[in-house]
Amino acid sequence: MQLKSYWNDYSEASPTSWLQLQGNKMKQDVYIEANKSKVVQVRPAEIITSDKFRTGCTLCFPLMDKIRDDKEWHECMMVDELHALKKSGSGCLVSRHVDSGEEVDDDGSPKKKRRTVVRMERPRAVAIQFQGINTTDITAVSKMFSGLEFYVVNGPSEFSKADIEREIAAHGGSLVQSPTDQTFCVLADRLVARVRSVISMSCYDVVLVSWLRACLDAKKLLPFLPGHMLHSSPATAGKFAQEFDEFGDNFTEPITDEQLQATFQTIAEKGADVSVSQEEILEIEQRYLGQSSVTGLFVVCLFGFI
Fold it and tell me: CB 189: neighbour CB atoms within 10 A?
């Protein structure tokens, strides 16, 4: 039901350019744009050669395990990975049995044949979307992130993981594809399985990509703020507890209009009870307005009119 509104009627008169069919052998009724689709996990018996599809092969008796909501549409298996998997096991994806040879008892009668299970292992490789970029051809812009190590998990559609890594490298930072004890922070735009895995370690600062963008706009390394964090390491959480209240408002630094709006939003999201009594309002007005201000001349007076 989630995809119902995204299905489109297929027209042979004006075919979709990215949808590649194998001649006239396949009749297409409807289609869905790739970026609106879902990644599914399947268990086929084998991968067989077929001339009915442009891939040159298809799955035999596939069973769908589940919908992978933890993956984006572009994080599915690529065609070259499919062919590599088919080649590694001659298409077979399940266990097969091999006879060890016939043996006989002392009386000459054959023994029961023993079967050895041989499991076909899939080739291990890092998917393209999880690989790091080639930094050899990147021109240095500044040393803003010099000496800092970053692990980038993902980014928004308009500022991808590769784009983020290029910016970090251009400003002197180093990159890893798995966090180490030297990692300055983990950058992510959304919670996925890999981000949750890092958070479960409870030792890394997992920071929103918006923090990196703020640094690039300011052209300097900015400190973390509570609003930047998907997860705080114990050290950072302790620092925040000394400098900020539970809603992310700094105890000593001036606040901007945008930060004030973000604080109000946090208060609303947490459903906090922030009611103020008349006595507290009066105390605040006397402290900050007093009688020296025109607006505070009659703040402590009560008038009755007849």
Answer: 20
Nearest to 127 by CA among 164, 93, 80, 87: 80
Instruction: Kindly report the number of other CB atoms within 10 A of residue 200's CB atom.
Output: 9
Confidence of residue 86 (pLDDT cuts 50, 70, 90): confident
For 67, phi then psi, to 5°, come to -90, 130
Output 296 or 238, whichever has higher pLDDT: 238
pTM beyond 0.70, yes or no: no
SS3 57: strand
* 208 DSSP β-pair partners: 188
Please choose, from the candidates 43, 46, 33, the residue with its C-alpha nearest in 3D space to the C-alpha of residue 74. Answer: 33
**In the predicted structure, residue 128 carries a pLDDT above the cut 50:** no
The pLDDT assigned to 119 comes to 64
User: Apex CA 304: angle with CA 299 and CA 305, to 5°?
Assistant: 125
Give whole-number Cα distances, 108 to 99, 104, 112, 115, in Å. Answer: 19, 5, 12, 21
Helix axes 161-170, 209-218, angle to 10 degrees: 40
Name the residue among 56, 61, 46 with its Cα closest to residue 20.
Answer: 56
Report the amino acid identity of residue 100.
S
CB 20 within 8 A of CB 56: no
Measured CA to CA, the distance from residue 297 to residue 300 in angstroms comes to 8
Name 231's bridge partners. Answer: 206
